[in-house]
Amino acid sequence: DALVIVGSEDVFYQQLSEEDRNAFFRKLPKTRTTFLEIEGGNHSGFAHYGPQTFPLKDGERSITLDEQQDDVVAATITFLVGEDGSKLKKQ
Fold first, then answer.
1. Are 8 and 40 in contact (CB under 8 A)?
2. CA nearest 87: which of 34, 42, 13, 47?
3. What residues pair up with 5 in beta bridges, in sequence order?
4. Rounded to 5 degrees, what are φ and ψ at 38?
5. Measured at the alpha carbon of residue 20, what is the angle toward residues 76 and 64, in degrees to the nearest 5?
6. Spatial separation of the C-alpha atoms in residues 90 and 59, rounded to whole Å
7. Among 16, 27, 38, 52, which one is most buried in terms of CB atoms within 10 A?
8. What is the pLDDT of residues 40-77, one digit of tens each?
């Protein structure tokens, strides 16, 4: 199984062409991939390395770093233990 998590304000994900996104998703299990978008999250919010400016300036988070990381941890735990995925904010 695969879990793909992005932020709604993640400029790196947003700038991918539809062709690039499709190529990425074709490499994942077709029936066992969960895609989750963290509303208000950005690319740099998946770590603690500060603002992302290279090679592109990242989008602005509308949630706190702690909120984004709490959402990621909760989604990952839910995914790994196989709980009801309806609690995840699927896109």
1. yes
2. 34
3. 36
4. -85, 110
5. 40
6. 20
7. 38
8. 999 999 988 788 888 889 999 999 999 999 999 999 99
Determine how β-strand 2-7 pairs with β-strand 33-38: parallel
Phi/psi for 4 (5° steps) reads -110, 120
Phi, psi of 3, rounded to the nearest 5 degrees: -120, 120
pLDDT tens per residue, range 31-49: 888 999 999 999 999 988 7
Do 20 and 74 form a contact (C-beta atoms < 8 A)? no
For residue 16 the two structure tokens come to: 């991918």
Written in H, E and C, the secondary structure of the chain is: CEEEEEECCCHHHHCCCHHHHHHHHHCCCCCCEEEEEECCCCCHHHCCCCCCCCCCCCCCCCCCHHHHHHHHHHHHHHHHHCCCHHHCCEC
- Of all residues in the chain, what percent carry a pLDDT higher than 90? 69
